[in-house]
Amino acid sequence: MEIGKQLEYSLYVYPRKIINIGAYYLEERPCNKILTQDRSHSIIKRVLIIEECSLNISRSNMEVIGIFGILIISCFFLIWLWLKNRFNYWSSRNIANPPCSYIWGNMKSVLLQQCSFADITLKHYEVFKSAGKKYGGIFMLWSPVFYPIDLEIIKSIMQVDFQHFVDRGVYFNEKADPLSAHLFAIEGKKWKLLRNKLSPTFTSGKMKMMYETVVDCTVGLFRVMDKEIGNSVDIKDILGRFTTDIIGSCAFGLDINSLENPDSEFREKGKSVFHRGLLENLKQFLLFSMPNLMKNFNLKATPNDVTDFFMNVVKNNVAYREKNNIFRKDFMHLLIQLKNKGKLVDDDKLDSENLTEDENTITMEEIAAQAFIFFEAGFETSSTTMTFCLYELAKNKTIQDRLRGEIQKVLKKHDGKLTYDTLMNMHYLEQVINETLRKYPPVPMLVRVCTKDYKIPDSDVILEKGTKVTIPLYGIQRDPDYYPDPDKFDPERFSEENKNSRPAFSFIPFGEGPRVCIGTRFGMMQTKVGLVALMLNYEITVSKKTREPLQYDPQSFVTSTKGGIWLDLKKISPNTVELLPQSS
């Protein structure tokens, strides 16, 4: 019985020990069940089957894991081959390109926000220029980008052979992201039609119409500046609020009043577009590198909250004006005319007879997109230009005094009336602004995309359709071959004599050719108004709070400084100036 019990215990607890049971007849267990020889064989058989199945499953698992591992390795190998072939794109065409990472391309430091766009543009420009190259190639992530250095090639791309480079290659998605489908981004025939419609809104006549709205905003500027007398001021912040109020009024017909309320929602939404976090920066790189693929995922270039905010502002604005028959001398009024009539009522140059009804008018979404880009491009670039200009004037008292003297002299000739035409007659002011734009262009690079195969002049290089092109604006305008001692601020570079001595396309802060910035006149107007107002009322010096030498902010695509630019103000004898909207 002891043997039976022991065997029974072994069968249930240590079944693998039971191999040959023989003819033992085991007594009944406490559960009153008899274990016979046949039954013991059955149990052993089941144990062995289970063990065999376990071994088979283990073998199957190993096979699956092995196959899966091979697939992963194969995928990585294929990706590596694709990347290797991709990053041989320029060398296989005998075009120089700097060493780069297979993942990041040549823009890793910018993507990770360790370096600004301006700094990397100058670096690449100097690499190719020092090697004696007329052009080169870089990679933005894994997207090849043609990098012309020679001004004649740049002229061909932007102007002479423009039909090969009609588009900018900037991401937009009309359905998923309506605000992205603005004049700066859209392509082909749609761009041409919209450009023709919008061009009349930026003539000198239309600028005069908006001039009064611009100068009205100087009242708030004086109020804020006067409060800061004796203190150091972050001039970029103040001028950003100033231009926000101007564009908000001219583009949307709204009294933003961000000068008095720095935390206004309008101001905050506008700023958020230009100052990107790391993930947002990566998304923008992906949108630029693979726009067609990203469209399939309905990715948005504009954050949802920004889209909702501006779409609601525009829809409510247009509805209110149309319901109450409101007329304002601003950009929104001109857009509403295009929406309802297909052209401006006082402009007969736009040929709309050959257009379909859909082509002849613009939609509410198109109005919102144009107002949005007018706001975004206008407030940041102009405030940046004024900021750097005032910084250089604060460091160069001789230039500051000369500029103030010219302003006072021109005003005296016009009985103290600062009209639009008076403003345009201040030639040294224009030289000062142009030198600022040379040294600190708001946008450090211009982009194009090849829309059909193109042979680079005087070479065997063929740019394939779809190839992206970057014009290194910042590098060109810091080139000592065109601007000796380029770090020196010298407005005399833009005297008529000196301008004519330089080659064409050595100064293109607003672009050039058919896709030149449509808002150049407006940007210059608001910049001039702001500088004249400040020069007439304040003497400025650089505050100790300004970090020198200046360092560019890597989180901003627009050229901007880390830590801001701080100035000390001194009120000077007030000048009696009458700001008038009409031409004298």
From TrEMBL:
Subcellular location: Endoplasmic reticulum membrane; Microsome membrane
Keyword Signal in annotation: no
Organism: Cryptolaemus montrouzieri
Gene3D superfamilies reported in the protein's UniProt record: Cytochrome P450
Name of protein: Cytochrome P450
Protein family membership: Belongs to the cytochrome P450 family.
Membrane topology: Peripheral membrane protein
Family matches, as CDD domains: CYP6-like
Cofactor entry: heme
Record GO terms (molecular function): metal ion binding; monooxygenase activity
GO cellular component: endoplasmic reticulum membrane
Annotated residues for binding of heme: C517
UniProt feature coiled coil, ranges: none
Alphabetically ordered keywords of this record: Endoplasmic reticulum, Heme, Iron, Membrane, Metal-binding, Microsome, Monooxygenase, Oxidoreductase, Transmembrane, Transmembrane helix
